[in-house]
Amino acid sequence: MKLSEFNSADADTALLKMLECCGSRAWASGMVARRPFTDRIHLHVSAEEVWQALPETDWLEAFTKHPKIGEPSNLVWAALEQSGMNTAAKETAAAMRELNRQYENRFGFIFITCASGKSAEEMHQELVERLSNDRSEEIGIAALEQRDITALRLRKLFG
Asked: Alpha carbon of 125 to those of 18, 94, 96: distances in Å?
């Protein structure tokens, strides 16, 4: 999609495009309200500003729209982003499922990482390390990871 097409799209269409990039309705609505974007830099700066201004509840909403690392997904971008899990050893995949369960029980939300380009082993190690964080630290890390995922998806959407 061209940025000019996004700028001139009706609000409902634009909202759906933004929800493809980030599952927070407040973030997507904020981005639609900021149109028109003069260029991709303006778009990305706005995405960051809108994201950082959101309360934790909106971050958590975005997290719920992600499949868990290592679990099948029908979301094309998520499946591509997590492709490092496709070659994971059975033991690594099983460990990821168990660690995902522990993480979600500990923090109350799923493990979020910008998985693009990461191997299964790298994601496994990151998950192990992040399990030792406290919730306050971890929500901040997860929000930064979501920000990075969103930026990646915006680049894909607007080529």
From this structure: 31, 14, 10
